[in-house]
Specification:
108 residues; alpha+beta; Alpha-Beta Plaits; 5-stranded antiparallel sheet; 3 helices; 37% helix
Length: 108
């Protein structure tokens, strides 16, 4: 992948561990993210679960991969959208991973 197209991974985590709700929330967040100037927002398919999850199903159901245009302003828009989405829900955690960097955004 080139420097102009960073891959951003998002993992939606809920305090109560409801896998179905986490998957529904990921779909809702994906809808918001698709409004941005990004190449794609797709469900992740990975055999490696993020920290704090118990099964591969949680990862594939509640995780998103975003292919961004690479500009810092686009990545900032992704982070702002995640933060706004969490604020509307009034609870939850989204882990944002860009390459080897990880940022946890939570609201409780």
């Amino acid at each position: 992948m080139s420097e102009n197209q960073p891959q951003v991974s998002l993992f939606v985590n809920l305090e109560n561990g409801d896998e179905v709700r986490a998957a529904e929330d990921a779909i809702s967040l994906a809808r918001d993210l698709r409004q941005l100037d990004v190449y794609s927002v797709e469900p992740a398919s990975s055999s490696e679960p993020p920290p704090g999850t118990r099964s591969v199903d949680v990862v594939s159901g509640s995780s998103l991969i975003i292919l961004a245009a690479g500009a810092k302003i686009v990545l900032r828009s992704v982070l702002d959208t995640v933060q706004d989405w969490l604020a509307r829900r009034q609870s939850g955690t989204v882990t944002v991973k860009i390459d080897d960097d990880e940022l946890v955004i939570d609201i409780y």
